[in-house]
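Continuing the batch. This is chain 6 of the set; chains 1 through 5 are on the previous pages. Same settings as before, nothing changed between runs. Recording input and output for traceability.
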Amino acid sequence: MQLKPEEISKVIRSQIKYYDNAIRQDETGTVLMVGDGIARASGLLNCMAGELLEFENGSFGMAQNLEENSVSIVIFGDDEEIGEGQTVKRTGKVVSVPVGDAMIGRVVNALGQPIDGNGPIETTEFRPVESPAPGICDRQPVKEPLQTGIKAIDSMIPIGRGQRELIIGDRQTGKTTLALDTIINQKGQNMICIYVAIGQKRSTVASLVETLSKNGAMDYTIVVAATASESSPLQYIAPYSGCAMGEYFMKQGKHVLLIYDDLSKHAVAYRALSLLIRRPPGREAYPGDVFYLHSRLLERAAKLDEAHGGGSLTALPVIETQAGDISAYIPTNVISITDGQIFLESELFHAGVMPAVNPGISVSRVGGNAQIKAMKKVAGTLKLIYSQYRELQSFAQFGSDLDDDTKSRLEMGARIVEVLKQHQNAPVPVEKQVAILYAVTKGILMKVATEDVREYEAGLYTHLDSDAEGAAVMNEIRTTGALGEETEEKLKKVLEEYTDHFVATRPAK
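Output for chain 6:
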């Protein structure tokens, strides 16, 4: 092959033209030791706390302890190919995750990488996992309701957009089901949902994604999964990653619902990580900053004012208790950070009351501000009647000679319990909740036998959809959110007519 001199000179000229004379400088360190997902490296003099560091084999870690002669690094992923003497270099960036509309409908890991087998996520925007919470002046009070579709919660323990409401209870009491029902009920509510699974079994996360898909909820949901088989650093970072994804939408003026399931496992992962990097242990071997671990996460939930777009980020953290002990270390920490808690009780669950919400200990510190006017009017006395019923019930079992007033309170209480029972994955629209709660608090339901209440309720919802007058009342409550005198009269008439018809058509016992 003959090369012409002019061709050679042309190639040399183009090489000289595009020659980049910039000197690239990377600050690198040397791995001193590695094991249990933790590495210690020397030589990273200017390393920042929380900085992303890259190892020789391409895996990443995060700088945690910045000591005089070394840096403790938590490794994201497998540490098998990382060895003593290898180099580790600074990236100059803090740990960030991809954000954007392309994330919606996907299942990702704690670093925002897809794990659902549906191909790569096309997004160019990133947000740091740790960022400061909105300031006091950037917020406005919580005043918009977030409808969960669960009668017991929307009536007695209402949640507002921008609130932090804790779901707490023993294992197998329906905490995750409560959270999933809330996500399912956000269909058509202009809400983006993010579910963060921390330390759960992979099979549990898979069935959860299937439930959401079956109910059409994956169209507006992101699932962030750091399962039990993954390392402590990934479980530790998962809720912050989910929060960063949510903040992106909040800053755009959108509404976001974030579920952290659960923060007990998150605290355990952080404890493991802290002990491995030799941080001094405190109470129950948790590190001293375990309160700050959750407070800096949950403070990022907010309802922004109009000047900042008016978006909101609502957080529903989940905490698992041991034998109903809410006075343990992590439960008391999270209770003190949140704006109320929904306490699920094992005894109620085993008695067949589902959702097993205990109205005595459960509270919402936002209260009626997070309810529509119609619900506030109907449910105002509900919690009081229910609490009185539970108290009377414990006394009534000792004596059979009860006066008429006590008997009627017990009868009404029994019907309230039946009305508040609900199947999973079956959220009830708020206007229908108003109708059934009106029927029970105003005594209309006293004509119906307690064992027939569930059947009555199912029939009532169908009747309200098919009956012209009932549908008009429902539409008015849905659009105005209020229950004026005229609407109340119409609702009362519809309920009384349906109740009389229902009782008349019951077979004789």
